[in-house]
Amino acid sequence: MKAVILCCIAILFAGVATWAQTLKPSTQLALDTGNRYYYQKSFPEEGKEKKALYQKGKTWVNTNLDPSDNYFMVDDAGNDSIRTMAYITIDDLPEVQNQVISFKVLLRFYNGSVDMIATGFWYSAMNKTNGDQIDQPLGHLKGLNPATQGSVIFAVDKKFRIMIQRLQHALD
Questions:
Q1: Which helix (H) or strand (E) holds 164?
Q2: Which domains are seen in the chain, by residue range?
Q3: CB 37 within 8 A of CB 121
Q4: Which residues contact residue 72 at a Cβ distance below 8 angstroms, ignoring those fewer than 6 apart?
Q5: pTM of the predicted protein model
């Protein structure tokens, strides 16, 4: 009897946790008026020269973003900016597999600071139920149940938070 009660409680808490997860918007990314995700942050680096920050940023991009061979633009002459496409992979979920989030990253370098802007977050995956390919903006996850949508955003937040921590560490 105790085991049945404990099992019921565990199922109830799992359901509440899943429900709560679906209601939370991204904690790392912001939504614009078109319901598209973006990220914008300035990293102050007092006393550091633009060229040194640029070199650290370039190393971080190559190490952490798996930059696209088709879209990787650097400004080695002026040390002003780096643009690339980046990719985040997410573990399979019960409803979807082969999940990839792609997005554009712009790093701007100044004496004493670095600005990062990430836009164009795009979600790609395969629906396990019917085999359909899903390709849509991350802010418009249609065709996925609310629990899966919440799980996708939660996973993106987790990976993005780690990515930003690595950038901050690389710049320090």
A1: helix 146-171
A2: 2-171 (3.30.530.80)
A3: yes
A4: 61, 83, 84, 85
A5: 0.80
